[in-house]
Amino acid sequence: MRVVEGLSRLGVFTHAVLTLIADDGYPVSVATGFRVVDDTIELDPVSVGEWFLPQPSGSKVHLTFSHIRPRPGVGYDERNYVEFAGILDSSASRWRFRPASARGWAESDIPFLELCERALPQGRRYLASLSQERRIEVKPRMSRGLLFFVATRLPFLTATLVPVVLGVAAAAYERHFNFGLAALTLAGGIAVHLGLNVANDVFDSLSGADEQNVNPTMFSGGSRVIQYGLISLRQMAALSVVFYGIAAASGLLLVVLVGPGLLWLGLAGILISVFYTAPPIRLVHRGLGEIAVALGFGPIMVLGAYYVQTGHYALRPLVLSIPVALLVMLILYANEIPDRGPDAKAGKRTLVVRMPRETVISGYVVSVALAYIALVVGVVLRLLPWPTLIALVTIPLAVQTTRGLRRDYNDPYALMPSLQKNILLHLATGVLMALGTLLAIPFG
Amino acid sequence: MTPDSPARMPEQVARLLDAALVAELTVIDQGGEPRTDPLIPLWDGEHILMTSSVLFSRKLEDIKRNPCVAVSLSDPIGILTEPFSRATIQGDARVLEDDLHDGWASVLPLWLKKEPVVRNLLKFRFALPLFWERSVIEIKPRRVLWWCNGDTRLDPEIFHIDEVAV
Lengths: 444, 166
Prior knowledge:
The structure holds 2 protein chains of 2 kinds.
Chain A: H1 3-8, E1 16-21, E2 27-32, E3 34-37, E4 40-43, E5 59-71, E6 75-89, E7 95-106, H2 112-118, H3 120-134, H4 144-152, H5 158-173, H6 179-207, H7 209-212, H8 233-258, H9 263-274, H10 289-310, H11 315-345, H12 351-354, H13 357-380, H14 395-407, H15 416-439
Antiparallel strand pairs in A: 1-2, 1-5, 3-4, 4-7, 5-6, 6-7
Helix pairs in contact in A: 5-6, 5-10, 5-11, 5-15, 6-8, 6-9, 6-10, 8-9, 9-10, 10-11, 11-13, 11-15, 13-14, 14-15
Chain B: H1 11-19, E1 23-28, E2 34-39, E3 42-43, E4 48-53, H2 58-65, E5 68-73, E6 86-96, H3 108-114, H4 118-123, E7 134-147, E8 157-160
Antiparallel strand pairs in B: 1-2, 1-5, 3-4, 4-7, 5-6, 6-7, 7-8
């Protein structure tokens, strides 16, 4: 913090705390009144007992300003402090402090969560020094179950559930349903998805994107288990390989069970997933991440789930996949909004990084609109059963999400409810489309 | 120094410590300069206790190098007592961190009295795991300066805390 900035913030404080090191080696800190005069701070003289004084003029002291607002029954907020180092002239009746350097934090400028993220290097350094001292690794602890939940970003699995359920529903509409195959399809889809999530963390850690991100939210910035020292990069890489191994095994088993027509689709899904962030292709770094996600969690999964049940491809599941493909793409797209700063620094040129705010918002609105238009056109052309129109009830949620994105575009933490609604939009729309498809079976 | 210095923490200062939502902890950094951070002071009747996350561990490193610290109780907004007074407590600090993950739970009851929201935050400690890896700073008071009406232009009452009596 620059001194001039520190001085400009002093209007909210009721008092200053003058600090110096006494002759006996202990610090002494004393509250006092103050007022800013030009680039200096005038202080009320203080008395701390004669053996600490006199302070010779020109001595080096520190001056701290601290403010909180008590919140009975809660704690406090509005944390704000500034500490100056400088020279004190106590020769006149009013003492004069000339600041030379300043540091501090205001909760209103830097949210507490961001402050914690900025402090990560210090935290890791401290744990490393303790580890060295104790000759045993000291690291944060978390139960294995919770670590798995956090590291794999398990709640995002809705992105896989929706297209698989939709593909199975499309097959059921044509009187094809095998529970075992559906479960195996879901297992394979989940494995690809978790492999992607974990690999994404590995490659974003290697590129520095996650390290530079000081505004992660529960929807963006990765799982951060590597940054927090909960698990090593190597362990995460191994976990990713395990997931992709399970995905490949499930896929091959399905190919054996239902036919080779699934092979190319499955292979495309795994390759898109791997090269989403993996070099040298790095689709997400080239502004192709959204398309990759739309394809992977849209047509590929819906058609794949459909094929597993029916043994053939068809136009209906393809059309069914368009709205969910667009909406899942928008999950990534909106989640990139708070990440756009660190992503740009790490060379991760996502669509959101490439475009100005208004274009990003317009892109969102157009994509959402296209999702609903695709649904309606599908019904009008009789490609989709009419009960799928029930999914149109999510339009108000889309409107709310758009408003939130526009309003809180520059505030990562305020954006969180909108990002949550955006995920809900995909889930609700997809589930309602599947439900509509199933409800149409008696009429089909 | 007053002639009748008590052996224990003066009652009026203990009340301040119990009431204060914030205090300024000053440590001496590697360069011999004071460094001050606002922290929640907790009082167990014998020591001033504070907790610090490893994320904000500069003060812990400083205390390990030099245990001489001062705690200032100065904020009329953050110290809800009537009548208001101010105090500075000098003492020797040590860092307790055998168990960073759970060791600080010993001070949790005192902490919750001042910041009840911590109970809710703890439910989501997985979201910010390093913040909840914490050390306890235990400060043994040595000398207390007390300004009865908070006016530090006047001489403070000075109390020496008797180590034997404590």
